């Protein structure tokens, strides 16, 4: 793992990726933040040594470096998922590269289904805590202690100061920003009615197929981390309709300007 991280990092440094401060992972239908960045360098995933390759058609496959609101950022335009056949170590490998490049803060976005029926599709949810239902841990491999504390503390995986700033920004810009618990499942199938009921019982406000592995690794590496979900559908088990992936993508795209405002205004404060 250390050898692979070194190879990937040196490749990107050779491409001009020079000491970014903030890492950003863009989720489903949330790629337009790229248009706000003064791009200095970029690298396709399939050109970066040891990098996985995004296989989902609505996830791009580039790592982008540039300036956003005067801050150097490195952005994943497209992420990896366990449901694509990757291991949790594959999924989180880019976070380890970001940290080696110099990143101190990780911001994550995703699309999620609203379990809490007080939350409506098209709104945003600030993740305050999570439930890992992906069946394993990205830290469960031999030699992990060479990269950080094996028994990583997860008492506060989402940075309180960043979350408070997100909430203030949302209020100032009239953006509806709920706060809640995100459950991460494997997928790619959507949940059954019984599964939605279970998720509500165990305390989830939203459900998705990403984010938690990356946040675990960010904490393992000592990064400040925060994440925001776009709620793309309402998961009411008593009135469940067949899923329409096109509608989910459209809802993420509709909510994207609010997400961009949150991220841009936050980065100004870093």
UniProtKB/TrEMBL annotation:
InterPro entries assigned to the protein according to its UniProt record, in alphabetical order: Nucleoside_phosphorylase_d (IPR000845), Purine_phosphorylase (IPR011268)
Residue ranges of domain Nucleoside phosphorylase in the record: 22-268
Pfam families associated with the record: PNP_UDP_1
GO molecular function, one term: purine-nucleoside phosphorylase activity
Broad class of enzyme this protein falls into: transferase
Keywords annotated in UniProt: Glycosyltransferase, Transferase
GO CC term, one of those recorded: cytoplasm
EC number: 2.4.2.1
One Gene Ontology term from the biological process aspect of the record: nucleoside metabolic process
Cited CDD domains: PNP-EcPNPII_like
UniProt superkingdom: Bacteria
Pathway listed: Purine metabolism; purine nucleoside salvage
Job description of the protein: The purine nucleoside phosphorylases catalyze the phosphorolytic breakdown of the N-glycosidic bond in the beta-(deoxy)ribonucleoside molecules, with the formation of the corresponding free purine bases and pentose-1-phosphate.
Alphabetized PANTHER family for the sequence: METHYLTHIOADENOSINE/PURINE NUCLEOSIDE PHOSPHORYLASE, PURINE NUCLEOSIDE PHOSPHORYLASE-RELATED
Family per similarity comment: Belongs to the PNP/MTAP phosphorylase family.
Name of this protein: Purine nucleoside phosphorylase
């Amino acid at each position: 793992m250390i050898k692979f991280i070194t190879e990937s990092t040196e490749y990107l440094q050779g491409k001009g990726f020079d000491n970014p401060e903030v890492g950003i992972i863009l989720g489903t239908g949330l790629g337009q933040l790229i248009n706000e960045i003064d791009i200095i360098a970029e690298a396709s995933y399939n050109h970066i040594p040891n990098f996985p390759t995004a296989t989902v058609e609505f996830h791009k496959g580039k790592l982008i470096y540039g300036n956003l609101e005067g801050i150097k950022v490195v952005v994943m335009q497209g992420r990896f998922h366990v449901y694509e056949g990757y291991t949790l170590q594959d999924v989180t490998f880019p976070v380890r590269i970001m940290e080696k490049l110099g990143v101190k803060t990780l911001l994550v976005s995703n699309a999620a289904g609203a379990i809490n029926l007080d939350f409506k599709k098209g709104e945003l949810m600030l993740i305050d805590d999570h439930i890992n239902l992906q069946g394993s841990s990205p830290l469960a491999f031999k030699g992990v202690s060479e990269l950080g504390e094996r028994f990583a503390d997860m008492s506060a995986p989402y940075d309180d100061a960043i979350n408070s700033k997100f909430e203030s920004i949302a209020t100032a810009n009239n953006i509806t920003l709920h706060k809640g618990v995100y459950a991460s499942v494997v997928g790619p199938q959507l949940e059954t009615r019984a599964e939605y009921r279970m998720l509500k019982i165990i305390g989830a406000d939203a459900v998705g197929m990403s984010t938690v592995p990356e946040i675990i690794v960010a904490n393992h590496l000592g990064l400040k981390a925060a994440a925001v979900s776009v709620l793309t559908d309402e998961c009411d088990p008593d009135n469940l309709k067949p899923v329409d992936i096109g509608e989910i993508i459209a809802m993420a795209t509709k909510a994207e300007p609010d997400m961009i405002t949150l991220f841009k205004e936050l980065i100004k404060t870093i």
